[in-house]
């Protein structure tokens, strides 16, 4: 899942070298923290959060194939 989020984020931003993805386990679910440059935050979130919602939907669909619960946090 970490690689999936990283590839999607790097395709969206102007500074792909500043994209950081950290995967951890909390309370039986996988938490993926996505950090980008402050100037790229708008590109990752999108208008009214549409791109962030799309990223979460894709990750959720991929996780459901593996019977996992995954949460994506954008920071």
What order do the helices and strands come in, and which of them pair?
Elements: H1 2-12, E1 20-26, E2 29-35, H2 41-45, H3 50-65, E3 70-74
Parallel strand pairs: 2-3
Antiparallel strand pairs: 1-2
- Low-pLDDT residue spans: none
% residues in beta strands: 25-35%
**Helix percent band:** 40-55%
User: How is the biggest beta sheet arranged?
Assistant: 3 strands, mixed
Order of strands across the widest beta sheet? Answer: 1-2-3
Structure annotation, total helices: 3
Report Rg. 12 Å
The sequence of SSEs as H and E is HEEHHE
Which of globular, elongated, flat, extended, rod-shaped describes the shape?
A: globular
Mean pLDDT metric: 95
Question: What quaternary form is this?
Answer: single chain
Tell how many strands the DSSP assignment holds: 3
Based on helices, strands and strand pairing, what is the structural class?
alpha+beta
First and last CA, distance: 17 Å
Question: Would you write up a description of this structure?
Answer:
By secondary structure, the protein is an alpha+beta fold. Helix content is 43%, strand content 25%. It is built from three helices and three strands, in the order αββααβ. The chain has a three-stranded mixed sheet with strand order 1-2-3. It is globular and about 35 Å long.
Keywords:
3 strands; 75 residues; 3 helices; alpha+beta
Brief account:
43% of the residues lie in helices and 25% in strands. With 75 residues, the chain is α+β, with helices and mostly antiparallel strands.
